[in-house]
Every structure is written in C-alpha cells, then in structure tokens.
C-alpha cells in the first residue's frame, strides 16, 4: 500500500503540482498567442491572394474569427485546471466544468460576431438570433457561476475541521486525477488526429465551424460523467448523509445536462446549458442550508 501511495504521490507531483501548473500556464499562453498570430496571418494572406485555400469557412474570412483559435488553447488549459482542482475542492472542480462550457459559448460568439448580418430583420435571421441567445446565456452563466462560487466558499468554511476519513477520500481523488491527465491528453490527441484525417485542404468543408465546435468536448463531458459517477460511488464509503448524497448526485445530473447540449443545436442547446448550471447552483444552495441547520 505504501509503495502504491508513493507512486501516486510521485505522479501527482509530476502532473499536478503548483510548479507544473505554472509551467503549463506559461506554455499554453505562449501557444495561444502564436496560434492567434498564425490564424490572423492566414486570413490576411488569403485576403490579399498570397495563398489560396478552397474553403467557405467563416473562420478564415474575418480577422475577428481568429480569436477562436487562442480560445481553444485556453479551453485546454481549463481542462487541465479542472483536473488540478479535483483533489483540492469538489465544488471548484464542478465550477471548472461550468467555466469550460461558458468559454465554449464565448468562443462561439467570436465566430458568430464575424458573420453577423446587421439588418432590420435581426430577429428573422437564424444566425443573428442564435448570437442573441448565446450572448444572453453567457451573461446568465457568468452570474450563475459567481453565485455558485460564493456557495462553494460557504461550504469550505463549514468544513474547516476535516475528518480523517475525508483525507482518504482526497487520496482517492488524487489517484483519479493522476489517471485523468494522460487519459484526457490521449483523448485530445486521438480526436485531433481523427478529425485531421477526415478533412482535406482542397475541400469546401475545410475548417468548417460545425466540424470543430464540439471537437473533443462532447467526448470530454462524457468522460466527466463517468468520473462524477465514480466519485459519487466512492463517497458512499465515507458518508451516508442524505444531503451530501443528493448534492453529489445533483452534480452528476448537471454534467449529464451539459453533455446533452452537445447533441442538439440552437436554442435548445443553450437552454440545456443554462438549466444545468442553474440546477447545480440550486443543489449546492440547498446542501449548504442543510449544513447550516445541522450546525445550529
């Protein structure tokens, strides 16, 4: 058991230490900046006919859409942070899920912003209407995440005196986090290679938005559902308190709702995301009220 713990600790320090996080942050930010400049350069090279790519993609028509690329790398860093915070705080781990889906919407807004049709028939144009929905949803999600974080801080204050069995639960979460780092890395690599093999530079479908909007993240949230279920089952070994079981179960439902949003388009997708975060907020709010009543 000691040897196993030492291996987990070594891998945890390698993948998820504060030093590794800072190094990862610097690398991702540099890559994001370089990717933005490259994307911008391609757009202007195409605009002035220095290169010719047979593509109808909106991502290669307007300089504003170049912001889409660095946001994709920022999302990768958010995925890493989600794993990083998993052993430290379960509510922060869930918050990161909400932040990721919100950033996906923000990233989509940059793409849609470059293709808006500024006419009097704003609410009759499907693309403009969806932009409006996403704009409102991003504001709602931003505020809901703020409220969720406040409730998470209340919970942390209530759990200052950590019981010994909670430390065992934290060790289990560290093991899961160590497994998730290479798993998500290979998932991302496989998704990129699989997608790249399915496109052609001479095809009119090259870099189309629909082909990359949900790239990796539909599989990512599917994996998160499995992780959340595992955490839920492990938690049964350490607590039989009804409100904690409901809280953990509610977070699983919230993740499932987010995953379902990738399977639909338009307003329904946006509504599912907002409902998922709203449901998670309601769950943690009620959970904290249970905690207060027990302390009273």
**Helical content class:** over 70%
Radius of gyration: 21 Å
User: Oligomeric form of this entry?
Assistant: single chain
User: Per the principal axes of the C-alpha atoms, what is the gross shape?
Assistant: globular
Average per-residue pLDDT, rounded, comes to 83
For the record, the count of structural domains works out to 1
Determine the N-to-C terminus distance. Answer: 40 Å
Backbone structural class: mainly alpha
> Unreliable segments (pLDDT under 50, ≥5 consecutive)?
200-211
Topology:
Elements: H1 2-16, H2 18-47, H3 68-85, H4 90-113, H5 126-158, H6 164-197, H7 209-212, H8 217-235, H9 242-261, H10 266-295
Description:
Helices cover 77% and strands 0% of the residues. It is mainly α and 296 residues long. The chain has one domain (2-295). Helix 4 (90-113) packs antiparallel against helix 5 (126-158). It is globular and about 65 Å long. It starts with a helix and ends with a helix.
